[in-house]
Design brief:
Length: about 425
């Protein structure tokens, strides 16, 4: 219903509400649509988990929907106070969701780290918001660089670029114990929703309040993008946990998104970022859907335990392979065209170093994705672990919701790349 309401509002005149605290326009609405899309695809992933636990479904869905509302408010925030309150609404629900399994030690440890780092980043962001409200002539202040760094730290916690990424691998892995009924779908939800909301917020903060200091924040974001692309993809090579690998991969992916933020309205930077975000949602959630299915049927998420999966479940193995190939950016999948459009816009804007690093790190990512795919398809008998040897497909009706989400995401990760013009046209129609 919410998605339908947003579609009916498309192309209408911008509107400001809540005493000027919230703004509705095409740019905000496209990000709100992406957040609703994330929630719509993530909720079916959670059904099987909720059925396997004794926890209340009402509370679980309430936290997800409240986090969704917080993310949507952040996309439309029109003043600094709302920019602080909206992500706190999202963050509080995220903490509760990540610690939903109270009896799991690793989950509790990851949640505590997530909470402490989130509180620290929120404090830093609030301090700079208060400083900005008090010093109305902030653009004349010599401390503008310090303010930019602090605000970037606050927003960076949600985006999780390097070096603000420390919580990401721990939270991803802390929710990975299938045998203890940990809420793995929560990780899928956080991996996409937080990045969409934070990207929308970053574009508004850097492009409007700090328009007068574009050189400073461009340099700062360029450093973050380079660190994210290099560290995220290089460290991902060494991981043995599927979800920890995805955590570092997501850090590298956000480095590509930052290129679009730097380019901005000129040269279709925002349009390329929105297009890639749409593809990233389908690629990432499709991969997580495959991991959830495999985990429910085997009780593990270690990469080596995927050896020979194709012999037991060709459909799941092919779906996972397509999503990973799309994440790596191989043609003719959607991820390739999304990266091509993003890098082309960056090249047109003169970000030659960022684009070259993005291309090189994309090759690195293809390497570790192909390693997993090779394991899926060509695992020899001696390499097949007991988890896959004893693999049994669940009855069709028991995993309907998860498989439906997986199929939708796999299709969205492959077909749209071939016919991108309508998607690009919609994304280009989202200027401020």
């Amino acid at each position: 219903m919410s998605i339908t309401a947003l579609l009916f509002r498309w192309r209408e005149e911008p509107m400001i509400s809540f005493s000027g605290n919230f703004q509705t326009n095409n740019f905000n609405e496209i990000f709100q649509f992406l957040i609703l899309l994330c929630s719509t695809l993530c909720i079916p992933l959670s059904v099987e988990y909720i059925e396997c636990t004794e926890m209340a479904i009402t509370e679980f869905l309430l936290f997800i929907l409240t986090a969704t509302i917080g993310g949507m408010f952040l996309c439309g925030a029109n003043d600094l106070i709302t920019i602080f309150v909206a992500p706190e609404c999202f963050s509080l629900c995220s903490y509760l969701l990540s610690g939903y399994t109270k009896k799991d030690v690793r989950s509790n440890e990851a949640t505590m780290k997530y909470l402490l780092m989130g509180g620290a980043s929120s404090s830093i962001l609030l301090q700079e918001i208060v400083n900005g409200l008090i010093n109305t002539q902030m653009y004349n202040s010599p401390g503008i660089s310090i303010a930019l760094i602090f605000i970037t730290v606050g927003i960076g916690f949600k985006l999780s670029p390097a070096p603000s990424h420390q919580w990401t691998p721990d939270v991803y892995e802390g929710e990975s114990s299938f045998d203890s009924n940990s809420p793995t779908p929560v990780v899928a939800f956080l991996s996409v929703t937080s990045k969409v909301a934070a990207s929308a917020s970053a574009t508004r903060i850097f492009d409007i309040p700090f328009y007068f200091s574009s050189n400073e924040w461009h340099l700062l974001l360029e450093i973050l993008a380079i660190l994210s692309m290099i560290l995220g993809n290089l460290i991902a090579i060494t991981q043995t946990s599927m979800k920890r690998m995805l955590a570092y991969s997501s850090i590298g992916q956000i480095g590509y998104v930052i290129i679009g933020i730097i380019v901005g309205d000129s040269n279709d930077g925002y349009a390329s970022m929105i297009t890639y975000m749409l593809f990233y949602i389908s690629m990432n959630l499709g991969t997580f859907a495959c991991i959830v299915l495999f985990g429910l049927r085997t009780g593990t998420e270690n990469i080596r335990d995927y050896a020979g999966l194709y012999t037991k479940d060709p459909f799941l193995a092919l779906s996972l392979a397509l999503c990973l190939l799309s994440l790596g950016g191989l043609p003719p999948l959607a991820g390739f065209f999304g990266k091509l459009y993003l890098f082309w816009c960056g090249w047109q804007a003169g970000l030659y170093l960022l684009v070259l690093i993005g291309l090189l790190t994309s090759v690195v990512s293809i390497y570790y994705y192909l390693k997993i795919i090779k394991l899926l398809m060509t695992g020899r008998n001696q390499e097949i672990t007991p988890h896959v040897r004893n693999y049994r497909r669940s009855p069709l009706r028991s995993n309907n919701s998860i498989e439906l989400s997986m199929i939708v995401c796999v299709i969205a990760s492959t077909i749209p790349g071939i016919s991108m013009n309508p998607i690009i046209a919609i994304a280009q129609d989202t200027l401020f």
